[in-house]
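Exercise 3.2. Students should predict the tertiary structure of the chain below and write it as structure tokens, then compare their answer with the key that follows.

Predict this chain's 3D structure.
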Amino acid sequence: MNGHEQYAEDLTLYALSVLQGEERTALERHLEGCAACRRELDQLRGDMALMAIGTAGAKPPARSRVRLMEAMAREPRRVAAPRSKPWWALAPTLAAAILAVMAVFFWRESLDLEHRIAALQSQSARQLAELQRAREIVTTLTASDAMRVTLVAAKTPPQPQGKAIYVRDRSSLIFLASNLPPVPAQKAYELWLIPTSGTPIPAGVFKPDAHGSATLINPPLPAGVEAKAFAITVEPEGGSTAPTMPIVMMGAGE
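Answer key:
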């Protein structure tokens, strides 16, 4: 079958002005490039015009009617191609597909969220355990009924110890001493701040109690002095402006 022959029936319907929709559009597109079909359409229209005249007045030539009928009879009947379904007919399928995709997406999000929740719960449990341990340590250190014992080498007297806590920006100093031997009459211990440059600076005088303990809290100091070390000497009760040798104790900053 030639390319234009499949449009034979549509040509007849088109000439009768009853061809509609996609078939009409397809035929008009075919007519633009097929001269044979255009000639056939012109002949059909001419025959139909003669028939129309015959219905209103004189009888049309028999040859025109016969020719039209023969043209309609010799052309094979085409089986109409199935029309495409309108878009709304696919709506249920599309909705089902979208729901399936969304279900997979939310399932993955839920699984990921569960993993993150489990990780956070595990981290929270570890932090709670560490916090509980810290509380137990603080409770032990600050308990009023705790027994505090200093272990030393056997048969060795406790060694004098001193600890200085110094904050340069605030010129704040706290000094704690223990196991200090008593000083001679009219004598006292004097604490010295050894700066990174310059001479030692007096940081207060003190005498230990009967247990060898002593405390100095925020003695007057120059502002902003960078400390390299601290030292203790034995001085007159009123203190000295320079250390008197020997140095009894000394410690450098960490």
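Discussion points: The domain at 5-74 is CATH 1.10.10 (Arc Repressor Mutant, subunit A). The chain is about 40% helix and 20% strand.
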